[in-house]
């Protein structure tokens, strides 16, 4: 009796330690960033282009490009990802070898390092399709990167819809599409939204694939979809690698902005989840 | 395997298999279903084999039998819900008003519209009470005078008075018994002529069960009702005719078979088969 209780206590301690480690790391990170970047976080950062002089340098083009990239990923990754998930969950016969191969590949894609997507983008989009080093190419690469996560999250959400709901709808003479469109999708929406936005926030923090396809670091004009671009993580990297302390402070401030964008996205995801969650 | 080939070949020339004496037509009524040599396999597992029986209109037909005897499988054949189970294969003939439900030109979606189903566990959609009942009419393009249609269905399911003031409330806020009556209303809203009920009261308390049984008694004036039940008293109370299914070894494989099908009173008081007698007197199952 005693020994069991001790073991229970010990395990609880281990869990608590894990929590403290994770939380302390995050807190330290946020604290140092805010400490270093607080003074540089001003309107200038949001409205001005970068400059060789830290006093007037801002991250406006990078912030704008990151927002564009986010929209592109949302518009491309969510329909394709949800469509894939619906096919695999509602239409595909899991006994067929090609469907199983598809599933296995999606799992694997989620584990492919992002730099590999960058190489693919460089070879296929930038050179092969001749898109050039443009924002659209960056958006497509981030879409590919986010896609497996969106698919996996959407599949989980779709699978969580109880089968009794589908049966009930089929029993009334609904077609498969009607069952999917009117029962499964609405019920799975909160999970799909949450998963998609988490995938999006991760994609927005990506640097390596964008560097790979040649996002430039020093852009003083507003980006366009078919023009050269930079992105916040790249701007941060570029500033952080400069020797001047003022630039480091700018980098820290830009990190705060990026964190802010991602926090906003996550808050939106939580709102969607709470707003539309069904209890069975 | 031999059996399977036999039954399949029987399908092409339209010739009805002989019907055993005790499976004769329900008295004077039109048969809604004429089942002939119906077998269902899930992969290699045979769920039911060689079931032949007629099911009459405007009466309640109960299917009883021990667990695993294929009761649910059987009624799921009647509205082609088994099509949704991967690997399910149906042999034999299931005639619905003389038309083979498994004929090549038959659309399972249309079958399910005409033959409604109520499930064991109440499964209202996570929508409002109104939208639950309106779902069927909407997907079937019967949205004209939807409000009246919804009211009529809820009324027939003896639920209208309890929910008329909160039609926009979530269906999940209803009690289990109300949810089940909502599911019945949902099925009635698309104007079927058969309602299949797969143990509709097994998840309900005795009072809710009584209400469902009263409802069945009421509804059989207009519909053919087929109910699967574990509860023999329930079958005795509500059913006009009762079919007893059991598990037997057929061609070296265990599968569900129809043992006896007759007037309910006869099944429970003087069954002609020893196995039925053992079951209804509680000696097994």
What does this protein structure show overall?
The complex is a heterodimer of chains A (280) and B (285). With 280 residues, chain A is mainly alpha-helical. Chain A folds into two domains: 2-40; 43-276, MetI-like fold. Chain A has eleven helices and no strands. Chain A has helices at residues 2-37, 43-47, 60-91, 97-110, 114-128, 135-159, 163-171, 176-204, 208-212, 232-240, 245-276. Chain A is globular, with a radius of gyration of 23 Å. The mean pLDDT of chain A is 89. Chain B has 285 residues and is α/β, with parallel strands linked by helices. Chain B has one domain (2-280): Rossmann fold. Chain B has a six-stranded mixed sheet, with helices on both faces. In chain B, helix 5 (146-156) crosses helix 7 (176-188) and helix 7 (176-188) packs parallel to helix 8 (206-219). Chain B is globular. The two termini of chain B are 29 Å apart. The A-B interface holds A 93-95, 162, 164-175, 178, 182-183, 187, 278-280 and B 79, 81, 84, 86-87, 109-110, 112-114, 116-117, 119, 121, 123-126, 135-136, 138-140, 172, 183, 186-187, 190.
